[in-house]
Amino acid sequence: MTRIAHCSCGALRAEVTGEPVYVGACHCTECQRRTGSAFGVGTLFPKAQVRIEGPSKVYVRGSDAGQKIENHFCPDCGSTVFWYAELYPDMVGIAFGMFADPSMPWPSVSVWEATRHPWVTFDHQLDRFTVQPNFEQMKESMRAPWIAGDFGAIAREIGAPEAERFVARMALEPGARVLDIACGTGNATIPLARRGARVTGLDMMPHLLEEARARAAREGLRIRFDEGFAETLPYPDGSFDVLVSMFGIMFSPLPATVVSEMARVLRPGGRLALANWTPSGLSGKMGAVAGRHLPPPPPGTISPLLWGEEATARDRLKPGFDVVETSVVPVRWELQRSAAGSAEFFAKNSGVIQLMLGRLDAPKQAALLHDLEQLWIDNNLAKNGGKHTLISNEYLQVYAVRR
What we know:
By secondary structure, the protein is of the alpha/beta class. Helix content is 31%, strand content 29%. It has an eight-stranded mixed β-sheet.
């Protein structure tokens, strides 16, 4: 796709190919002054995808983030068309309104809300920040839960059977180009490849990818595995026919950004399939138990379980997807251990729970573990509860079509 942004008189133009990697609303005072409006909406494109035509004058200014920005404006009509920001050296910023194109992707981020006018609102969900976020710093906190525990142990013990059923319901066509986002150890990736799909698995954790590669090699399956983040998918626009994420993207702290990226790399008419734990299932109940023992989360913290609410999932997908279908899918966790032993196994290997325990002193740790154990005991459906655990959990299955 090619689009052209230009100033009011048309003398200064920026021709771009492909979709922007970022569309965001900025409420900083500098953007307010640049636009003469209550806020500015900017886009970012890789420099290689932008061709500039026409004369421009330059005004170098500071920013509320302390970085320099080189604004380029038309010497005749004065419209600021594009800029180079010190914070993004490989990108060109282009003013959203200069495209005058209703097909442009919706903003997924709202920054510098500390100076947002209170009457400025949006009719869809965005990732909101008081100031300018630093994604590089966020990466470490995003990786932390998957380092603290042993997700692979949980995936091997209770995750694989349901992944097979989840993939089977999708009725994939052989040869479909499929991306499994946050693929982990490959529980969904492997059965996707078995069904003849051309599969790419992406995850931010190298050790989980190594386990997934080993599983694929043992079965002789050709799967591409890449290290990367759902928030910045390393693929060109429209690269895939189907996108899948099973208990993956729900843990991102930037849901609107992830939705924007999924829409970008999925071809128009392509399909999206998600599986997200619900607040009412056992996973949600464990979160509620933990919440009773922990201090309140920092302001702006987003619960992963919101992706398990039908209304929230629909609202988040609204900017890029149509024909959203949801259903609650029951799933059974079966372990050859007592309920108490199963609770101990899960707490030991769940990085999320391990991080929670790290925030508590010894007596509070013991109290949290006791309540989690009691939750598993109370929800155990097995007749021989001393050696067998059978838990009824559930997730929200979401199907959608790329607009």
